Sequence to fold (435 residues):
Amino acid sequence: MGDGTGLAEAMLGLDGFRVLTVSETVDEVTITVETVVGVVGCGRCGTRAESQDRVAVAIRDLACFGRPTRLVWVKRRWRCRELDCDAKSWTERSDAVDAQVVLTRRAGGEACRQVGQYARSVAGVADEFGVCWATVMNAVVEHGTPLVDDPDRVGTVTQLGVDETAFLAANRSHSTIYATGLVDLEARIVIDMVQGNAAADLRKWCVGAEPDWIKTIEVVATDLAESYRAGLSPHLDHARRVADPFHVVRLANRCIDGVRRRVQNATLGHRGRRADPLYKIRKLLLTGTERVEERGRERMLLGLRAGDPDDEVLGAWLAKESVRDVYLAETRKEAHDLLAVAIYRCDIDPVPEVRALGKTLARWFPEILARFDTGASNGPTEGLNLCVKKVKRCGHGFRSFENYRLRVLLHAGGVTWPRRPCPPRIRTRAPHSDA
Ligand SMILES: [Zn+2]
Fold:
């Protein structure tokens, strides 16, 4: 090129580089560049270095007009002329390109943003940039780790949510592996992810956290898992424990599912199939009754009549509805009474699953009611759960917990992303009214 007007450099936008040639194929644009340097001194002795030779290094940069860019950097190799100096020879470096990395820094940062902020798959981004999977994953680690470790990412937390998610599904060699997510319920961000869901895993995290920071936590919302109750002690004994409404209702929903599956199996001798009466209404059973319309209600009753001879599923459904009623209460007193009624009804139910539900509710009585004193909401955990699942889905499963944690935190951890160009909008030309 070398048209002397700097047009090519303006488009390239890499400080300190000059464009030598541009060539293209349908699949990529190749830009050959060199640095604009004059005099270079030896790093050891300071003597003026002399040019030895050049090496061409190919790297990927941001896509150029819709095509992946191959940047060929004709690197200069310098040599020290001082005979006594042991510097010998070296190749030049640039802040825009890390040694041994096939993505420019800006391309690496963008790859990290695509995977982290937008929860895109590493394979998809690798494909777009024309590099391999490991290159993109390395860029995510390289650029993402400082963002996640930024001490300003997590502020003072007064309401902490603790929630488990499945990290790896069970297979032949291991049972399901869980991860525990720690959530700032007010800022609606994931603070951290811990491998495992045992008391010891959570306690280890509490030990590692800043004591002054932990002191400011006033409310801890968890699901109804004894391991979390144990794991929060003693470091979070000062905080009010709340059973997360979302998880309380989910427990009742799981009770319905359990009873339904058992009854299905007992009456039909197989797992639910599409035409089975109970299978057909499995979602209706879980929907809050106030959200079911007349037709749905009829369908549900028909399904129960056909598939639930001993009213076992119906019993579980009634239990679920009485649990949901607790959260419709207007006052703490009302909630207290409704919860007592729900537990009593479960207790006298002949179905073992329903009785077990009642026992769990009784064990968590104060925590369930605490929700009415603290107002800790269930929205954030539920919403963040979806974010976590999105990351998991796009990763098609993870082998490395560290990568999983990094990607969840990049996506839902309230990371401050580096500023990105924010051009004025070019507006669509509205059709002229006088046309
Ligand atoms: Zn030297």
The first strand starts at residue 17 and ends at 24. The mean pLDDT is 89.
